[in-house]
């Protein structure tokens, strides 16, 4: 599959995950989010940017438990819950947040644990 963005063809897998995370941009994230029927708000951006920052530092996807810990430090305990994350990404952190952040599909979706 492919996405057309800024006059370029971006390769994706059969579920819409980018095959090359280095091609990601915030503008492309908006296109992916639209395909997921999600409007990007500040709470969603906070998590997507966290995923990207961790990827740029470590070349791997951050686990949800680490996202929750970082959310607690940044915003307090109110938003640092699985329930909050699933309200933002109803089909799951691994399935939607990571896809919007331009990650390849996780081999195992233990990210949601």
How are the SSEs ordered, and which strands pair?
Elements: E1 2-5, E2 8-11, H1 26-35, H2 42-58, H3 64-75, H4 82-88, H5 93-100
Antiparallel strand pairs: 1-2
Straight-line distance between termini: 29 Å
Strand content: 5-15%
How much helix is in the residues?
Answer: 40-55%
Biggest β-sheet: count, sense, barrel?
Answer: 2 strands, antiparallel
Number of helices: 5
What would you call the structural class? Answer: mainly alpha
Give the neighbour order of strands across the main sheet: 1-2
Calculate Rg over CA atoms. 13 Å
Order of helices and strands: EEHHHHH
Q: What descriptive keywords fit this protein?
A:
globular; 5 helices; 113 residues; mainly alpha; two-stranded antiparallel sheet
